[in-house]
Amino acid sequence: AGATLGAAILLGVTPDDRKGNLGSTMPGTGVNDAQAVGVEIMLGFILVFVVFATTDAKRTDLGGSKPLAIGLTVSACHLFAVS
After folding, report:
1. Per-residue pLDDT of the chain (83 residues; tens, 9 = 90+)
2. Which residues form the domain of 45?
3. How many domains does the chain have?
4. Engineering a disulfide at 36: which of 18, 27, 45, 49 sits with its beta carbon 3.0 to 4.6 angstroms away?
5. What is the DSSP string of 1-43?
């Protein structure tokens, strides 16, 4: 009930010219769909690779923080994707 009320309030206070794409993720100006999919695949691979590499129980050479490595990877991928 709270989410529905919040959505109704958001709909009521949002200007009409902004309601069409409200909350949707769209490729940036000058980026076509194929490029957007390519970037998503590449960054998804990098993130999954880092998660698997840092959480592998057979690796004994890791000395740092696993959550920090994953978090920095998420941050770097996000900064790369939105620029």
Report:
1. 899 999 899 888 988 877 777 777 888 889 999 999 999 999 999 999 999 999 888 888 777 888 999 999 999 999 999 86
2. 2-82
3. 1
4. 27
5. -HHHHHHHHHHHHS-GGGSTTTT---PPTT--HHHHHHHHHHH
